[in-house]
Design a protein that fits this description.
alpha+beta, YaeB-like fold, five-stranded mixed beta sheet, 5 strands, 36% helix
């Protein structure tokens, strides 16, 4: 399956990485690298993570990483995974 990162996700991730880099640029790079590995692995195991608490659709899932929720949708027809959003639990 193809993993597609949507614009909203990329914009929010950019804000998060900017905030982390205020403390440590290296920590921001490590955070992004490890998060990218988890997101890329969704193509192998798309149903690995829990059904989303924020959506009623079974194909919308929540990947939790270091206190952040990464919301993604599994699209069986196009055989793709759309990474929709990322947020800290206190933000929503």
């Amino acid at each position: 399956m193809l993993v597609i990162r949507k614009r909203e996700y990329l914009n929010e991730l950019k804000k998060i990485l900017s905030f982390i880099s205020l403390d440590s640029a290296n920590r921001a790079r490590v955070f992004k690298k490890q998060l990218d590995l988890r997101v890329d692995n969704l193509s192998c195991f798309p149903y690995k993570y829990r059904k989303s608490l924020h959506h009623q659709n079974e194909n919308v899932r929540d990947l939790i990483y270091k206190g952040y929720t990464i919301v993604y949708r599994i699209n069986q027809k196009s055989e793709s995974i759309e990474v929709i959003d990322i947020f800290k639990w206190v933000d929503k």
